[in-house]
Amino acid sequence: MNTTLSRRGFLGASALVLAAGLTTRVAQAADDKAGSTNQDASAKRPAWFSSPIKATKLEDDFYVLDGAGGNNAVHFDAEKLFFVDSGIAPRGQDLVTEALKLSPTAQTRILFNTHWHGDHAGGNPAFFKAGFTIVGSTACRVHLGQTIIFEDLPMTSEPSPENSRPVITFDDKIKFHMPSAIAITKIPPAHTDSDAVAYFEKYNILHTGDLFFNGAFPVIDRTTGGSLSGIIAASKTLLTFGDAKTRIIPGHGPLADKAALQRQLDLLNLTYDRLAPLAEQKKTMDEVLALKPLADLDATYGKGFLQSPMFTRMAYGQWLPKK
Ligand SMILES: [Zn+2]
After folding, report:
1. Most confident of 5-14, 27-36, 221-230
2. Distance 115 CA to ligand 1 centre (A)
3. What is the dihedral of CA 49, 107, 197, 309, to 10 degrees?
4. pTM higher than 0.85, yes or no?
5. Distance between CA 30 and CA 114 in Å, rounded?
6. Whose CA is closest to 158, among 144, 147, 143?
7. Which CB contacts under 8 angstroms, 24+ apart, belong to 285-288?
8. Distance from the CA of 78 to the center of ligand 1, in angstroms?
């Protein structure tokens, strides 16, 4: 059964569902949305809704903002402002405010969406109202215009307003110079089929969007084209950007380096090696989940959105026929 929630609602519910690692928590998530005081739900409620946005200066004209959904980056001078991702819907305006504190006079304003998910593009309407031109992959624009019923999460994401979808789209690469060179590259389907990354050439900084969850099981959205094999390939591709000193801003988690990204690749390869033989034995999803094939990894990687049961479900999905 699918529960229809607004994009805004999706975020609260999905974070709770993901935190719990159980789809059966949707009812509780819905209660939480309605203002329930359920202790367990509130304990797991992400801080995105209320926490202050933390700004970390990497360079005089480059900051990472954290606390309103996926990690944001901002690169600016007095005339130009380039912003990566827009957070969850209720925090979009807070991010705009932070951006304009850094460059109050910038007239040329670009918002780049790494992908369509509501914790990265949910705040788009606030950015549109503040005069930002929104840029994203073609698939990002398409999905932001769709009603999407999630395969692994019993909920539906509603379309964004038309004026808050990317008005400039690309399918391969696009480059900005605001203020220094920013190379955007579309990545083949991995976390979703809409993922793109931003490489800031001057500072050797890579923003990966959700192709990289630093220190946690990554989300794989197979409803819109994500897959375990896709995110393995993407992790390998990302390792080729820059050099050994590249600073990496993950979609979620603390600022990272190549070693941390390599650890994600190791985790994904291990996952593949454990699940592929089960697929060869034609095991069903329920049979695989009953085996708890990744349970031992929870202690290290299960402290983020996902615990091993949901991650196993998302990863094993690629071997099953799509519904
Ligand atoms: Zn995502």
Report:
1. 221-230
2. 7
3. 10
4. yes
5. 28
6. 147
7. 285/313, 285/316, 285/317, 285/320, 288/312, 288/316
8. 31
